[in-house]
């Protein structure tokens, strides 16, 4: 056990993918209602008593870190609506095995939270921003909070966060006309912009293939504007393919819908109630809360996680791509019956 503690092993799944990156959904609640993620009027929330405490979350993170996880991304729902998030960051940041501790946020509460998160030891911030137009933002998210998001991004830079990223879901007929503007905005604020294809994940009940603005189309728009766009050689299992413009600007494209990257996916997801998912498209997760709360030993939890990961063979996005008449992944009724199927529950 001592050598396991000093040198985390590499556990490979059946497709030789290591257990490396954990996305922690710290809450299923969100303060926006983005039409590609939470378009319904009503939602079924996880029962409060089932939400893991900060100690339970950080205890599980420590176990995952012993098994090779070195990247933790806080997400949700909207992670900044979870009270005491900075305290959780402090707990996780103490673990020397975690080399990359980041948050993905919609930015609405970022201006207020940025200093405390930086002080707590958070390494990086990614802000989801789909438009530079306030009216479009309100139509897309059902909240008039565009200015707050832009201010949040500014304050994140002011308190000292480096390596800021902007994630933009590009949807045909909604914001594909802003690709250049968003890239230029990224340049201005020294942030790397990543364009994300609209995915048919749980919760995306308005999805259809004709609304997907593909990676090929994005590259066409960018090439027309900037000239030659050069791919950057991949150095990690990051979901975005990275490209560089003639002026040196780097941007990414996450093309899970048309060009899935399952073969290098090292991500798994832990929901706020302690259910562990091996794939964004998975229909079932592994309940870690019950054993944790019924007093399972660390060795037992390790054994469960290792045995699940080493049998993993999910290729969710690739399998979706093979479907000819691709439609919404889960019906509204299905989402009500099991809110774990929602993107905002399992963490984007
Ligand atoms: N609330 C946080 C945020 O907005 O970044 C974290 C959770 S959100 C679910 C994480 C990411 O998932 C966001 O960048 C969001 O745009 C993305 N997302 C949600 N639904 C999506 C969909 N149907 N297709 C592509 N990306 C999606």
Short account of what is shown:
The chain is built from 13 helices and 12 strands.
How is this structure best described in words?
A twelve-stranded mixed beta sheet has the order 7-8-9-6-5-4-3-2-1-10-11-12. The protein contains 13 helices and twelve strands. Strand 10 (267-270) and strand 11 (275-277) form a beta hairpin. With 348 residues, the protein is α/β, with parallel strands linked by helices. The chain has helices spanning 2-6, 54-66, 85-93, 110-120, 134-141, 146-158, 179-188, 215-226, 289-293, 298-309, 316-322, 332-337, 343-346; strands at 21-25, 71-75, 100-105, 124-128, 165-170, 192-197, 230-231, 241-244, 250-254, 267-270, 275-277, 286-287. It binds S-adenosylmethionine (SAM). Residues 30, 36-37, 75-76, 78, 104-106, 128, 167, 169, 196, 198-199, 201, 204, 343-344, 348 line the site of S-adenosylmethionine (SAM).
């Amino acid at each position: 056990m001592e050598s396991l503690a000093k040198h985390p092993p590499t556990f490979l799944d059946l497709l030789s993918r290591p257990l490396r990156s954990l996305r922690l959904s710290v809450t299923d609640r969100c303060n926006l209602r983005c039409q590609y993620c939470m378009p319904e009027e009503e939602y079924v929330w996880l029962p409060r008593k089932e939400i893991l405490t900060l100690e339970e979350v950080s205890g599980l993170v420590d176990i995952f870190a012993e098994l090779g996880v070195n990247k933790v991304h806080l997400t949700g729902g909207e992670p900044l609506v979870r009270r005491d998030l900075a305290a959780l960051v402090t707990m996780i940041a103490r673990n020397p095995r975690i080399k990359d501790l980041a948050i993905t946020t919609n930015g609405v509460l970022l201006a207020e939270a940025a200093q405390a998160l930086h002080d707590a030891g958070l390494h990086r911030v990614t802000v989801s921003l789909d438009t530079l137009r306030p009216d479009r933002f309100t139509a897309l998210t059902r909240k008039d909070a565009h200015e707050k998001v832009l201010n949040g991004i500014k304050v994140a830079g002011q308190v000292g966060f480096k390596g800021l990223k902007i994630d933009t879901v590009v949807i045909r007929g909604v914001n594909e006309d802003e690709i250049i503007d968003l890239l230029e905005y990224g340049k201005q604020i020294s942030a790397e912009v990543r364009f994300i294809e609209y995915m048919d994940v749980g919760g995306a009940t308005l999805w259809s293939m004709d609304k997907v603005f593909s990676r090929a189309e994005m590259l066409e728009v960018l090439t027309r504007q900037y000239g030659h766009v050069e791919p950057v050689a991949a150095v990690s299992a990051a979901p975005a393919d990275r490209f560089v413009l003639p002026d040196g600007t780097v941007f990414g494209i996450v093309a899970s819908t048309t060009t899935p990257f399952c073969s290098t996916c090292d991500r798994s997801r832990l929901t706020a109630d302690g259910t562990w998912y091996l794939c964004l498209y998975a229909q079932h997760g592994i309940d870690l809360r019950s054993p944790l709360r019924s007093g399972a030993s660390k060795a037992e939890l390790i054994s469960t996680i290792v045995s699940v990961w080493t049998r993993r063979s999910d290729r969710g996005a690739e399998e979706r791509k093979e479907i000819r008449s691709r439609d919404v992944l889960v019906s509204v009724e299905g989402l009500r019956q099991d809110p774990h199927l929602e993107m905002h529950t399992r963490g984007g």
